[in-house]
Amino acid sequence: MRFAVVFDYFCAPAAAPDEALHRPTWAEISLDAVSANTRLIRSLAAPAEVMAVVKADAYGHGAVEVARTALASGATWLGVAALEEAVELRRAGISAPVLVLSAATPAQAETLVREDVTAAVFDLEVARALAAAGRRLGRPARAHLKVDTGMGRLGVPADRRGLELALEAARLEGLNLEGVYSHFASADEPDLSFARRQAELFDRFVNEAGRAGLSFSWRHLANSAGLLNLPQARHNLVRVGLCLYGLYPSPHVDRRQAVLTPAMAWKTRLVYVKRVPAGTPVSYGGDYVTDHAMPVGTLPVGYADGYRRALKGRGRVLIRGRSCPVLGRVCMDHIMVGLDEVPDAAVGDEAVLLGRQGAAEVTAEELAEACQTINYEIVAAVGRRMPRVFVRDGRPAALRSILGTVSLGPSGSSGPSGSSGPSGGSGSSGLSGPSEPGPASEGGGRR
Ligand SMILES: Cc1ncc(COP(=O)(O)O)c(C=O)c1O
Asked: Which one of 245, 267, 284, 303 is the catalytic residue?
């Protein structure tokens, strides 16, 4: 029950309880937006299927919850970067196909096979270890061949040498080389000539493999930008991350094809307000000094939560629908904001770091530009310490914090579960853990 009270604290300042377990700072993740975005992507990509890329905790949005929602909304595959991310999904009861996009190591072979997780293969040592694990465990290891068509990161060369390695791997007993893929380096740029060349190289490689007797059930190349900019590169699977979260990879994609809804909002509340005279230094180093008497507010969020130090002097938050500038340096756990625009602001007022408040909005792109980075990094950097409130059907459905995950369904909430995934709740949110038939087991079962 305590979590429900904490949630009230988030949503209704009047209900602030004594026994709150968290700072009043949280990320709201709209699973409704993830669902709508997935459906749009699915219809745009069709007949190709959709791999929901949920690596890095679903770009900060919560891997298990996003994975379940995406699978229930038309995605059939999941993509992660690390084996432990795949295991996190399995432990949450998700049985859909999962591809680890990054390099596997021989030491991981047995876990990959046992967990029925698909590995990227571009190296014979790993292929042999997977095949051996497949023979030992009595079921073939699943693998997708990674081909480097110009990203210069991972993969066999897209030529004769790469093909020979693929043919050798395909002959290994205990290994099922069921897919082939490559990755775009610049499908989000105004000049698509390099991306087109990558797409051609990939086609040529796949065709030559076919002529050599090697065919793949799954062929995939397009990321979000590839999906939007290069329809010829959809093959029979697209690997989409950023667009699932309602963001666009760059200004150089045609947004009219899919009008997406951002899934993350990031909020906090004023925990301290004071009036200071002109000449008052604010924050570490004292390099910001007020030049007039003004109200200053303190917000409990900092760079350890992903609110970047680069936002000093550049960031703004929304309070009572107005812009309030970040004053002085961003601390590990706090920022200070100028309240000239909202002189009546008071402790408990909501401050929006990312997202909408009334008609005003701070976008991930605005924050990215201020930090000289990309929107991917802004959302992915929102830290583990930040509680996530998952919203489904317009209502809070679950809360995940460092204390665990708890369902906030209408039939009541339970205490925190272990940190490995939702459990124990009895709400009707579909987020209540592996023992209940969630969307994943309905829509994502592999076999
Ligand atoms: C191999 C691979 N495929 C697909 C994606 C998804 O990319 P995006 O988020 O741009 O859709 C990524 C993300 O970086 C990736 O590394």
From this structure: 284
